[in-house]
Structures are given as structure tokens and as C-alpha cells.
Amino acid sequence: MSIEFIGMIQQRKVSETHLAEGPAIDVDYVRDFAQAHEHAGFDRILVPHSSVSPDATLTIAYAASVTSRVHFMLAHRPGFVSPTLAARQLATLDHFSGGRLAVHFISGGSDADQRRDGDYLSHDERYARTDEYLQVLKRVWTESKPFDHEGRFYRFEQAWSEVKPRQQPHVPIYFGGASEAALAVAGKHADVYALWGESKQGVADLIARVRAEAAKHGRQVRFSVSFRPILADTEKAAWERAEHILNETRRLRAEQGLDTGGPLQSEG
To answer: Whole-angstrom Cα distance, residue 121 to residue 181?
Structure first.
């Protein structure tokens, strides 16, 4: 069983315990952070997405230009561009990055974040749209001739692309979401299912559910689990540091008028 280590970069220094400062894009920071991941031996770097952040696709294009080995994972929300256009953009980026691209398809953050970009679909409707989006996307990536498509959300005539992904049959598809609607889409399309670190039993249960959905389509899925390692000289010191991080995160969120009661994790 192969294991990959995945990091994350953003366009400037910011985290739960460090408020963002300066302009929205710090080019030197992106370059240094991407190269630090490569020099440390990371396999892949996630660039996250939100409705107010700099464009993740262009960030990866730049980060790929200043690295040579480390791979990337683009957080991408279906629904804001046509899947035919997205297919060409992603295939193009796969070539310019040297076949180092993967895409994490995220059907939505919060309703408020979706609506900033004009998306008013409900939770389950967003996953239904993602299902159709990925069907079209993969056909554009793999079909040798133009095709027509008429579905619930999209309609195309003679859709096709002369650029196909460098990676065959297509770039790796990462996917997340634990609802029934999400798991059904994951079973059909995900190459890698991504989940947050929970209890060992919770992770095992979710993996079993995803595998059951994938089996309905004769597929197998790999898994990615996200953790935030907290390091210190002793276990006691690590727990103390963890409590400090949690308290500081809640303090800063409260100062910004953000919710402090739910899970403190970002979309990726």
C-alpha cells in the first residue's frame, strides 16, 4: 500500500492562529512555501478555495513553474464554469505542470459562501450537479469524437476538446462529503476519497460506506485523511500547545464575528 504526504499552501501567510496581513497575494511567500514542501519531500500540495480568496488554479500554475517534482491538488467547485471549459483548463494545466495535477471537487462550502458567487442550489442539488459535471468532464477528457449531452443542469452540442490531460485516462479525482448525496457521487467518480481525521471507528465506518458505494459501480477508491500534527518535546507539552492553538483560534474567530462553536477546519 502506497502512502502519500500532502501539505497545503495559501497565497499569503495566514492560519487559524495568524491573521492575514498585507496584500492578498504574496508571490515570494507562495514560491518559498511551495519549494519548502518540495525540499521536505512532500508528495502533493493542496491549494484551497473560497469565494473570496485568490484563484487557486492560477496559484498552482505559478507554484508549478517554480518547482519540478512536487505534485498539486486543486480545490475546485463545480458549477461556476462550464464543465467543458473546466475540462480544457484542467487538461492544459496538467500539461504545463508536467502531469503533476490532481483536482479535489468540492460541491459546496456553506450556503453563504456559495451565494457570494451566485449559487443558490440546495445541498443535495449541488451534489446532483457535481455528478453530472463530472460525467461531462470525464467524457471531454476521454472521448475521441464530439458528443452531445442533455441533462438536468447542462446541455451541449458537439462538445469536444483537442487537449486531453497528460495523465491518462485523466487527472486524479479527489472528492469529499459524508452525506448520502455525497457518498453516491463519490462511489461513481472518486479516485481518492478525502476525509478529516476523526475517531478510528468513525474513519473506518466512513471508509466502509464509500467502498460499498464504489462497489456498486465495480470501482475501487483510495483514501486520504487530513490531520493537523501538533509537535512538541513531550506529549504533555503537545497537549498544552493544542489547547493554546484551540483557544487562540476561538479568540480570533470571535474578534472577527465568526462562529466559534463548530468544527474549526477549513475547506480543502
So the answer is: 14
**Residues 97-125: pLDDT tens digits?**
999 999 999 998 788 889 999 999 999 99
Q: How far apart are CA 82 and CA 80, in angstroms?
A: 7
Task: Give the integer Cα–Cα distance in Å for 222 and 173.
Answer: 10
**What are the b/e assignments for 196-217, b being 16+ CB within 10 Å?**
beeeeeeeeebeebbeebbeee
The phi, psi pair for 223, rounded to 5°, reads: -135, 145
DSSP assignment string, 95-147: HHTTS-EEEEE---S-HHHHHHTT----HHHHHHHHHHHHHHHHHHHH-SS-E
Cis peptide before 172 (omega within 30 of 0): no
Model confidence at 1, pLDDT cuts 50, 70, 90, reads low
- Would you state the CATH architecture of domain 6-229? Alpha-Beta Barrel (3.20)
pTM: 0.91
Question: CA-CA distance, 189 to 66, in Å (whole number)?
Answer: 31
Q: What's the pLDDT score for residue 79?
A: 92
> What ranges do the domains of the chain cover?
6-229, 230-268
Q: Which three cell numbers stand for residue 260?
A: 466559534
H-assigned helices in the chain: 27-40, 56-65, 83-96, 111-116, 123-142, 180-189, 200-215, 235-255
- Rounded CA-CA distance 5/224 in Å is 9
Nearest CA to 117 out of 57, 53, 174 is that of: 53
